[in-house]
Amino acid sequence: MSTASTAGHLGIAAENSMTSQDAPRELMPFQPANMTPAQLAAVSFLARYSGPTHHLYAYQLRRWFAWCETNGIDALIGVERAHVELYIRSLTESGLMASSVVTLMHGVRGYFRFAHID
Fold this sequence. Notes:
Blueprint: H1 3-9, H2 37-46, H3 51-70, H4 81-93, H5 98-117
């Protein structure tokens, strides 16, 4: 599945120049029959949040899903610690500061915790 469709399944309409205060965000239709288990877990995780936290975690998960897709890995099933460590390394090698990498991992960590409980 493409990154664009993954973003749609994560419940976030395409980004535009308007802020959340300018207009309500359009949610994509919830269609679990058309979702992978990873996407369903992401949508369920993101449903717990609103406003800036929701947008931040959605962005963090879009990056994780894109990296997984690029590397031929399912974003949830079969992920091992080595995959997460390689993702962290790729973030660091892209020039991000260590504190930014830690921040990007908040949503990913929460997603896996939520999926494990669910």
